[in-house]
Amino acid sequence: MRIGVFVCQCGTNIASTVDTGAVAQRALDYPDVVFATDYMYTCSEPGQQEIQKAIAEHRLQGVVVAACSPRMHEATFRRAVEKAGLNRYMFEMANIREHVSWIGQDKGANTLKAMELVRMAVEKLRRNEPLFASEVPINKRVLVIGGGVAGIQAALDCADAGLDVVLVEREQSIGGKMAKLDKTFPTIDCSSCILGPKMVDVAQKENITLHAYSEVEAVSGYIGNFTVKIRKKATYVDWDACTGCGLCMEKCPSKKTVDRFNENLGTTSAIQIPFPQAIPKKARIQKDACRYFATGKCKVCQKICPTNAIHYDMEDREVVEEVGAIIVATGYDLFDPAPYGEYGAGRYPDVITGIQFERILSASGPFGGHVKRPSDGKEPKDIVFVACVGSRDKSVDRPYCSGICCMYIAKQAILARDHLPGVQCYVFYMDIRSPGKNYDEFVRRAIEEYGVQYIRGRVGKIYPRGDRMVVQGADTLLGAQVEVEADLVVLATGVESSRGAKELAEKLRISYDQYGFYMESHPKLRPVETNTAGVYLAGACQGPKDIPASVAQGSAAASKVLALFARDTIATDPQVAGVLESVCIGCGKCLSVCPFGAIQWKTLRDGSRKAEVLETVCQGCGLCNATCPPKAIQLKHFTDDQILAELDALCA
Amino acid sequence: MKRTVAYYPGCSLEGLAEEYDRSTRAVCRALGLELVEIPDWNCCGSTPAHGYTPLLSAALAGRNLALAEDAGLDVVMTPCPGCLKALKGSLEKYREDPACFQDALGRSFDGRVRVVSILQLLLERIGPEALAQAVRHPLTGANVVPYYGCLLTRPASFAQFDDPENPVSMDRILEAIGCTVPDFPFKTECCGATYGVTRNPIVTGLTGRILDMAVRVGAAAVAVACPLCQQNLDLRQQQVEKANHRSFRLPVLYITQLVGLALGLAPEDLGLDKLFVSPESLLSRIDQASDTADSLSNAG
Questions:
Q1: What is the pLDDT of residues A374-393, one digit of tens each?
Q2: Is B92 on the interface with A (CB under 8 A)?
Q3: B150 and B110 fall within a common domain
Q4: Based on the domain organization, do B104 and B173 belong to the same domain?
Q5: What is the pLDDT of residues A235-275, one digit of tens each?
Q6: Do B183 and A465 touch (CB under 8 A)?
Q7: B153 and B274 both lie in a single domain
Q8: Same domain, B33 and B154
Q9: Of A108, A159, A556, B18, which has the fewest Cβ atoms less than 10 A away?
């Protein structure tokens, strides 16, 4: 084989701590290397042309590039060598940037390590074989997980483009957190009025299949061909028969059920439709609150239902959907303020969270849109808002900014003044973060036109005095301690990752950060892709986000799916396992270790049983290769020969 | 479970808070906990040592821990929150850099010993249920608010006991001995600490707030677990009353004194005579309640 080695300087990224010239010079001593050089930016257009020119001039049969991580540019260089007439797998990359120059200061040691990595790459390349991808058809259906505003936007965009969409929602209705909001900043338009029509669209689009009150159980397959198991949780109501008339809710005797949609501020019936605009507008029995499930007696809803939709014996059901791409839009949850013992949330009924105040403001909320405090139903005269409860605070492991609280506090203070013109609002804040379009103007309006008192400082304690609450804090601009007496205190609780986010990530094989937010493929340039091909992100599951940003990401993720589905087939990765039948002893160990079910039995004409790899299902993990006793299964491009040759080179 | 516990009284309990020492020993004896005073114990370093250098503080406090280890004891109890912080801080310093710590200490130390407050000891070794069973004279009818002060549960990183901002351990003990415990929002507010000596108006202001809140929530007494808090709330109560132009007359008892009363221990074993604000009003209320209960049960 005739091998060429190209050592990249990466500007000064590599050259400042690795003698790239010496690495190239040394490479000429390695077997089969007939050409070696270093270059300033090998990934640049002229850099790639250098490689192509060398392939022609020196009749190269394989190329090694010593540069950055293969995750960065392996695809770039594979395309380059392919253009020059080589098979794209006759290429190897040695990572001398992330693994060498960026992590060591000793230029001599770095240079030696770079030489050894190049030597390993050369030895592997000498044993490489041309591999050829095959094309498999793409299943042009898309799964959207999560029916908040981001997921709704993604589903509608895909459906508008003619795709079949499967939308899975964990709760009983789609709408997500936005459905709980009264108004939205900075325009003060009614949340349900702008979200409602989109929710109705989802219900009416014939090419959207909605699985509400359902959860994704398992995901298998790969880009273009995923198989998804979905568990439809038992609602004890036949949704095909239910018309959403609400008669059952009226007659249900268990009226003291805590209303989760109203953030525990009110009560509801055990059989419930969470809110008037719910989609699907179907009833569900909350089993732990139902009198029949507790005592075996009652059945009022069953007797009253005009369509006989109530079935107490209903069980969870599993459905399987085949899709070609997945959009994850599972949203967020709100911080539980219990760790702030000094604020007394949970102990004092008039210390509430931002989302609870949102329900109080809402016309469909627990008080019909009249601003009252939960303890005694009195109209508050003074309301204090406390910013950054569970945001920008290392002591509760939430060092990040939640991004939305400054704005929703300003909005809630304005709305409180609109509802009760006599009410005085105070905001304790650390900084006001309002970088969106028309956002800062909105906060200024709260301060200047609505007379909201902004106090810069943290709150140290909240305690009752008589029937009011005292908020004790610092005013860091005055350099003084201040006390504000209030009837109602609203804690602006921050954003955290959705409960169950990590478990879902494991099923989807996507990564998440230490706080449970999903990792995008590149923080700037690939914001809606994940590192698992065919799985995309939208909305706050990736990090705290407001409505405009979530909607934009929903559309962005949809456009990525449409780009993928613009093709009819997708090239499979040929780096999969293969069986050498003459060596296979038919022990079946590989079948038992394969996590993807990619190996099956095959009977030869002589009746003997051999393992067979389903190339489209194999993910190239190599477990079978490591397990196979006679080494009959080999992972192509990472065969035992190749790995051992690398080790030999390293140990030579 | 091992009932023997190393006891570190600290300097306050030898003088100012002599009744805290006496009642702590009496209560532990009555509950079957054997306190072994650390032989030849020395000053924990208090504020001056860690103000000079944290390592000096760690070494001074650490010597006491090492002596406890020598005596084969694995738990050190100290009733004083100042000592508690110094001893726990010393362990923290040891964990950060064992070599440096042992160098400063001038001897080896293996860091296995635990440090607890009297509250933690009562809750972990006895527990609220067993404590309630041991009670002979439940303090029924007594509204008592727990005042923890600033140090008992802080800094949270090495106190590692109870909620730093809304502690409940003393509440649970008070409930176990039959007290009514009103919601007391000023559990951890500052009493002014040592400013009583240098800038007295700070203490009369801050302690005044605490006593005012106690009265507002209907307290007949305040329970404390810190000698300095007790001094400011009890010894200085007259100063506070004068500065605030009002009368409180609110008894301030150590939690161990209250537990001792409930266990039926003799008042002289608990040092009730050492209190500046007489606990008479509280004691008569308890007696009345038990008399009523007795007459009710007799009538029944």
A1: 999 999 999 999 999 999 99
A2: no
A3: no
A4: no
A5: 999 999 999 999 999 999 999 999 999 999 999 999 999 99
A6: no
A7: yes
A8: no
A9: A108
